[in-house]
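Bumping with the actual sequence this time:
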Amino acid sequence: MGELDGQLREDALDVLVDASTWQLAGPRWDAVAAAIGALAVALRSADVRGVRTAVYDLELAGPPRATGVGDTPVVPAPEPVREEINELIHTLDGRSAAE
């Protein structure tokens, strides 16, 4: 446990902002939701290692670099995922503004 450094906070914000614009195949949103949930828990408990792991997992859950013909259609984030992304962005922005 410990305090988030500026770089880790910035990395988390960057991937959250990116995630808010992703278009993914429906099943990939489950992995995004799991990573966001883990990030929220890690932030609440000031678990720096957990934040780092969740940020990494969220990056991996993002859109693939290439898609093939006939791949599963992509859709925007489901409403609960969008809401949690926005809450985490505001949480991280608020913490960085307080410093």
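The tokens above came from a reply further down the thread. Residues 6-98 form one domain.
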